């Protein structure tokens, strides 16, 4: 069995991140990055992910899409009902926004990781929530760990799979 090497790249900074609000699907990225690679490239369907690697011939992969935050899309964090926000932060199964729960996101990303990639080198440009979910899956970490991971714009996380997922630091 040949290994899978997956580098997850967080999209470039957005205005939503700068001002503390949840992004809209068509939220633009503030910049793009140059990646010199021979790896197969995938990107989430949202504009901010596609713009981050606009110079590459990346294939859009729906499995990399951001968490659906329902009615919270485009809203400032300080505009949210404090009790709903705290419930959502405390319970990965909560969906006060009417969208996708963190638990459902983690399940979706785990399924994608375990079925969508073939052997070889991959680069996938996606979102902080998706990268958090991938890290939990690779480490077998509990859902409660999700809110303890910060993923900054343009951060890179390297994972490999040869029988099991592993986090590679370097």
TrEMBL record:
Gene3D superfamilies xrefs: Phosphoglycerate mutase-like
Pfam families: His_Phos_1 (PF00300)
Signal sequence extent: none
Protein name listed in UniProt: Histidine phosphatase family protein
């Amino acid at each position: 069995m040949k290994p899978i090497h997956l580098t997850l790249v967080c999209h470039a900074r957005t205005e939503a991140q700068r001002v503390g609000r949840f992004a809209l699907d068509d939220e633009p990225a503030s910049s793009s990055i140059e990646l010199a690679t021979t790896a197969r490239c995938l990107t989430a369907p949202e504009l901010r992910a596609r713009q981050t690697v606009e110079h590459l011939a990346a294939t859009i992969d729906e499995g990399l899409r951001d968490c659906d935050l329902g009615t919270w899309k485009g809203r400032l964090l300080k505009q949210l009902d404090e009790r709903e926000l705290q419930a959502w932060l405390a319970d990965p199964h909560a969906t006060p926004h009417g969208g996708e729960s963190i638990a459902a996101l983690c399940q979706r990303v785990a399924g994608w990781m375990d079925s969508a990639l073939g052997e070889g080198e991959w680069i996938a440009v996606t979102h902080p929530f998706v990268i958090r979910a991938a890290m939990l899956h690779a480490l077998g970490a509990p859902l409660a760990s999700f809110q303890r991971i910060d993923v900054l714009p343009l951060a890179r996380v390297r994972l490999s799979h040869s029988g099991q997922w592993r986090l590679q630091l370097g």
